[in-house]
Amino acid sequence: MSSNEIIVVGGGLVGAAIAYGAAKSGAAVTLLDQGDIAHRASRGNFGLVWLQSKGAGFPRYARWSRDAVDHWRPLAKELADLTGVDVDLQQHGGFWIGFSEKEIAERAVMLADIDTDGRTPFEILDHAELRARLPEIGPQVVGGSWCPLDGHVNPLKLLHALHAGLKLHGGRIFNGVDIREVGSDGEAGRFQARTIDGRQWTADKIVLAAGLGNDRLAPQLGLHAPVVANRGQVLITERLKKFLPYPTNKARQTAEGTVQLGFSVEDVGLDDGTTVAGIEWIARRAVTTFPLLSSVKLIRAWGALRVMTPDGAPIYQESARHPGAFVATSHSGVSLAGSHAYEIGPWIAGVQPAPDGVAQFAGERFLDPNRKFSNAH
Predict the structure, then answer these.
(1) Chain centroid to CA 146: how far?
(2) Dist. CA 94–CA 81, nearest whole Å
(3) I want to staple 262 with a disulfide (CB 3.0 to 4.6 A). Which of 74, 77, 234, 343 is the partner?
(4) 87 in a domain, yes or no?
(5) Closest Cα partner for 218 from 371, 10, 60?
(6) Tell me: the pLDDT tens digits for 135-162?
């Protein structure tokens, strides 16, 4: 038996990236994936590698997000070389689109708050400046912001590549596993993960990366991980001639030529369905942004649940009560994939020190009565 066995509970983008990084570091990793019954954000997200909204009021999160975008090109190349899967990374910049002067002014303040160390270049653009770069932009668009570090990927290919890479590094994946109980035997320093039907896995360490399930599992190992669901509906069009060379927060054109339109922000509990009102709102906003979309066919719509903490920032923590038990949760599974693979995974595997300032991501920050939180997406 390996002396560095790790169970990762949760096979979405967060868990898969951490498992991949730990296995690459030499750990014997077992990934327990709930599979298709999971409320998995990984299969329904917008695919953005996005810096433009991460870390306002939380400097360590801003820096964490900034470092993550630097990891992306090496990660994409590494996965392609190892697995043969091209995740369709395009990282040449991205645009946020605004419809009022008030929105633009608020955006400028937020971006200045994020760029506290001068490493994150942003540019506020008026309508004419935006139209010069995005000729198909609509007349009702007032302006926007630009960040040259942003980009997008195919999240389904990314998930596939991480799972394939994990296996090639010796990791095991069990699908259809619904973990309902986790625990520690104390004296032996081993951890267990058990399903409702009695199946059990045991290892030296355990990582809770179960998305919305972390709210239930984390307290069993002395960890605090308050997470709630937030639904986003997304639309996809037929394939179109290339007109959108950069991703935006309203629409992005995929490598195949389809256009992904999004996204809603809805507090509806665990309902990941679609609604006529939501689809109509997204479609109207997309046509206002890019009028040429008014005549295209929509071919699919779906809903997915984001995993949101009270402030929208991640939780990374090792349990003080049960050392060797970790929790990791983030709604930015795409943007932060490189940091999860190159920093969190090796830390948990014991081959790298904890990331600088990781204690600031502990879940106990939400117990401070003097702090107020907003997870505005």
Answers:
(1) 21
(2) 26
(3) 234
(4) no
(5) 10
(6) 999 999 999 999 999 999 999 999 999 9
